Sequence to fold (287 residues):
Amino acid sequence: MIQCFNNHRFTSRFEGDAPPRLLYSCRTEERHRGMPRVMHMHEDRAELVFITSGTGIHHIGGRQFETKKGDLLLYDAGVVHDETANPNESLNVYGIAVSGLRLPGRPLNHFTFENTTPVVAVGDRFEEFDQLLGMIHSHTVSDNRGDAEFANYLLRAAIVLIDDLLHIQAAAMQTEQKVMVERIQAFLDKHYMEEVTLAQIAEHLNINQYYMSHLFKEAMGFSPMQYVIRRRIGEAQNLLINTDASVTNIAVTVGYNNSNHFHAAFQKMVGMTPAKYRKYWTDINAE
Fold:
């Protein structure tokens, strides 16, 4: 017999003195499968739904998700959600409600956090979740002594697994977002001297332009169009210092067909006109 020692130290992820509490567990029944559960929310609890078979459409927090077997749906407290099964097939689920859920960095009764979504695919852990939630449900409906306590311990195990999946999702999302920001930046660095619009950038990169702007500004500190202006003015500074090209020609080179717009943008960003900037550096180099 090989002994496997549990030597890993850990800190409980449940904050506060009281652990989360199981409010109820449910499993879909045939007569309920065709009835949609329309827009609603709960202020005093979080809910999780695990799809064991079938497909559906779920609206969670203003977003629509096409859901399927193996998806975990996480309904944070105060978040509006709506559930509709595919009429052509059965949607079978386990549902659990929990109160007193306190996880690090999150409001009371919230599963999700930044860079996570309320729908999580469990992947190759399907059997594990199916058995665990099945056990929670069977011990919840049982009247045997100790089953209620046991179901609550199982709930905490389920929450630990869910939280691990959310952290994996967040790491993957951060990597995906970093790659997208790099693609946006590469496109702008290549085309900043041209007349580009947000719509053109978004179309080229196959991304929603509002999401693109938010993502880029959050990462870079500038909107895409602010970045274009800064790149143009930065290149203009190089040309003013290192070449004898006229200010008008430099304006055209960096993407300004209107020299007045170039002068205004340059002065706003640098604090002086292009001509004064050139003279300033010419005088310094002559010393």
In short: DSSP finds eight helices and nine strands in the chain.
